[in-house]
Design a protein that fits this description.
heterodimer, A: about 190 residues, alpha+beta, 5-stranded mixed sheet, 5 strands, B: about 800 residues, 6-stranded mixed sheet, 19 helices, 29 strands, about 25% strand
Chain lengths: ~190, ~800
Amino acid sequence: MRVNFTVNGRPQQADDVWEGESLLYVLRERLGLPGSKNACEQGECGSCTVRLDGLPVCACLVAAGQAEGREVVTVEGLAEHARRRAAGAGTPPEPAGTSLDEARRWTAAPDGTRAAALSPVQQAFVDAGAVQCGFCTPGLLVAADELIERNPEPSDADIREALSGNLCRCTGYETILDAVRLAAARAGEAGPR
Amino acid sequence: MSTAHTPAGLARTAHGGVGESAPRPDGTLKVTGEFAYASDLWHEDMLWGFTLRSPHAHARIISADVSGALATPGVYAVLTHDDLPAATRYGLEIQDTPVLADGVVRYHGEPVALVAADHPETARRAAARIRITYEELPVVGDEESATAPGAPLLHPARDDHHAAHVPHPNIVHRQPVVRGDVAAARARADVVVSGDYEVGMQDQAFLGPESGLAVPAGDGGVDLFIATQWLHADLRQIAPVLGLPEDKVRMTLSGVGGAFGGREDLSMQAHACLLALRTGRPVKMVYNRFESFFGHVHRHPARLHYEHGASSDGRLLFVKARIVLDGGAYASSSPAVVGNAASLAVGPYVVGDVDVEALALYTNNPPCGAMRGFGAVQACFAYEAQMDRLAERLGLDPVEFRQRNAMEQGAVMPTGQVVDAPAPVAELLRRVKARPLPPERPWDTAGGAPDVRALPGGLSNTTHGEGVVRGVGYAVGIKNVGFSEGFDDYSTARVRLEAVAGQPVATVHTAMAEVGQGGVTVHAQIARTELGVTRVVLQPADTRVGSAGSTSASRQTYVTGGAVRHACQEVRERVLALGRARFGAHHPAWERAVLVLEGGKVATEAGEVLAALADVLEDEVIDVEREWRHRPTEPFDLRTGQGNGHVQYSFAAHRAVVDVDTGLGLVKVVELACAQDVGKAVNPLAVTGQIQGGTVQGLGLAVMEEIVVAADGRVRNPSFTDYLIPTILDTPAIPVDILELADEHAPYGLRGAGEAPTLSATPAVVAAIRAATGIALARVPVRPEHLTGT
C-alpha cells in the first residue's frame, strides 16, 4: 500500500508498504530517517518516540497505515519544530516545581561551543552529559521537548512521570533530569514572561 | 613528563583538557539523530539476515530440511552447520562455541541456521519453514545435576588448558585461594556466622540491539561494520570461521548502543559475513529485543556459601567461602570470572586466614560471561550481607565494623598481593555515612493529599503511606581494573600532528570501541593536554590500527588512554627535535630549557614562547603508532590462589535509603548515595555518569532484574515487558562524592571507574530493605513475595 503523511513538516509518500510494517520501520528503512531507534520494538523502551499529530507515541506500536494523512515529528525535525514553536506565541509559564534558581545553579560543560542548529532541549542534553551511548536519546528528546512545551516549568516529579516510558541503561537518569531542568530554565530565561 | 600545567604568562590551551568536563565529540550527532548506530547501516542491494534458534535447551539434531526455506521467494541463502567453510567453533578463551549447532544444541536459543532474504519479514518467515527434528536430552541445570554420577557431559572431548585441573568435566574452571589456617582461626573466633546466598541471572540489557552489516569485497574478503567491544578479538575469532586470512576481514566499529560486557562475545559477526560471502551481497543483521536476550551472554547466576569469624572486639579472623557460578552451555569468559570471584571473594577487608573456592559450571542454561562487575558483583552481595550479620552479632554499627576491618594502602590481599596504591575504604564509608539523610515521608505535600509518585508502587496508587517503613543500608566493594592473571593487556594508539591552514591539528586513531563510556572524549582531552593543541580529530575505530583491547574491565581510559598519551609524548619529542633543528641555532632555550607545548606554541616552562607549533611543523607530518602496557600481572597458583594477579583495584561505597510497603512488598529506593575513588577524574562529568549508571544497574539487580530460566532450561522472560530494568521512576537521586587519590602507577594517577559502583549498590539496597523489614534476605533480586511471606 501507499502511505501519505507529513514528516517533520514535509509531505512524504511511502510505497509498497506491507500491511504489518510499523511506522518505525517506514521511517527508518523507507524514508531514511533512522533517528528513531529500534531498541525493543514492543513499546516498552520509548527509544522510538515520535510525535503523531502532537502526541508522543512509540512509533513501533503504530501501524504505518495509521499515519495516513497525519503529521509526524521525529528527532530529526526537533530543532525545526522548536524554532517554529519559538516563533509562534509563547505559552505562559505554569507554577514551578524546580525553582529557576536551583536549575541555574547547575553548571554545564565549560566548553561553551554550541551548534546553532540544536533545539534547547537537544543542547541541554549535550551540556548536561545526558548522552552516553545515546541510543535512548532521540526518544527521550522528543518526550522531554513535548513535556516542556506542555509544562514549561516541570517539577522533578513531573519530569520523572513524563519520561517514565523511556528506558536509559547508561546514565542512571540523573544527568537526564539535569538536562530537562536546564532546558526548562533556559527556555524560562529566553521566553516571554 | 606531563604538560598538564600551564606555564606562567602563557594562555591556557582551549578548554577540554585532562581534568575538565569536556563535552562528547559525538554528542551533537547523537542528539540530532544523525549518529549511525550499527542498526542504522544501509547498503544498496543489501539483504537481511535472520537466525533460526533452538527451542530446546539440550537436544540432538536428528535431521534438518531447509528446502522449504530455500524455495521461499526473496530468499538468497540458507546455511546450517554443514555449510560452514572452515572452523566451526570459536570462543574468547576456549574455542567451544559452535558457529551453528553441530549436531547437538546445548541451550535454549542456540543458533541452528541462517537465512538471507530481501526483507526482514521474508527472512523470518523462511526460517520458520526450516524443518529441524530434535531428540530432547536430559537437561543439566545446576551443580548437582552437572556433577552427579552419570551426568551428561556437555563437552566430553574437551582438551582446553583447564580440563586437567578441574574435578569434573562439567566444571569449566576452579580456583581456590588459601592463606593461613582457617581451622585455627575458627577456634579463636568469638563469633561465627554462616550463610547461603543466591544471585539471579542479570542481563546487560544494552539498548542498541546486536547489529552489523557485512559487505563482500572484490578481493574475496569481507568488510564488517559492527557494534562490538573489541574489534581485534572478533577478528581473531571470525577469520578462521570464514577460512580467510585476517587481512581479508576488515572491521570497522559502527555506532554502539551500550555494551556492559554483553558485546564481548561474538553474536552475529561471523553469521553476517558467512551470508555475505555466500550470496555475494551486503547482508545486514539486526536482532530484535527477543532475540537479543538469546544473542549475548549474561551475568553468571551464583550460589554462595560464606562463613565468617570475628573476635569480640570486632576484628575479622577468617573467611571461608564457596562460590558456584553457572556458566551455561559454553565457556565464554567463565575462567576469568572465576579468577575474579575467587581473588576478590573476601572484599576490601583485611583477613589473615582465608579458604575460598570458586568454580563455574557447564550447564544447559544460557551461556554466561562478561557483565559489568565480572565475578566481583556476586561475591560482594554475599560478603556484605555477612558483614552486616557480624556487626549485629557483635553489637557494632555496621559502618564502624567495616571500618575496623577495612583495607588500606599496604594491605595484603588473600592472594598475597600487596595493595600498593591508595585504598580509602574506611574514608569512602565515612563519606556516605556523613551525608545528610533525605527527608522522611517524601510523599507528604503541602496540600495534604500524598504525592503518590514518591510512594512505593508510585502511580499505581497502592498506598497513601500506611504500612510504609524506611530503612538505611551500607555496602562497599572492591573490583580489579584491567585484564588480570598474566594477560598481555596492551593497547595501541596512532597520533599524527600536522599544521592545517596555519593551525596545529592532532589526529588520534585507535581501535578502541566507544560503547557510550566516553573514551573518545578522553582521547581528545589527552591529545589536547599533551600536545597543547585545540583541534583534535578522532579517526573511526577499525582494524587498520593495532588492537586496543576490550572496552571492559574499566580499562580503556587507563590502557588506551595510556597509549594515546605515550604516542603523544613521542610526537612531542619529535616536534621539539624538529624545532631544535629549525630554530635552535638562534635561541639557546631550545637546548637548555624545559619545554612545553601549550596553546599551540612551544614555550619554556617559565612562559617564554619560542615558536608556534605550526611554524615548527611547516609541511612536516609527525605520525607515531605506539603500544602501551600496564604493569605485568601473573597467574594465580591453581592450588593456593597466590599471585600478583591484578594490576589495580577500584573501590566504591554506597548508602541506600529505601521505603518499603510491607503489605504489598513494594520497594521504593529513595536515595542511593555513592562515594568512589577514581584516582583522577579525567572527565568529571563523564565519570559521574559512569558512577550513576553503574549504581542503577546495581539497583536493578537488587530489586527487579532477572532472566528467569525454567527447570527445562528455557528462558521465560526475553522481553522488556518481562525483564524489568529501572525506569526513571524506579531510580532515586544518586549523589556522587568523588575522591581523587592518585595511583602513581597509572596515567595521570587515574583509576578505572566504570564497574566498582555496580558492586556495592546491590548489597546496600538489600541491606536497607533488611533494615526496614527485619527480613533476612539472602537472594537477589528481592521480590515482593520475599517481603510479604506469601
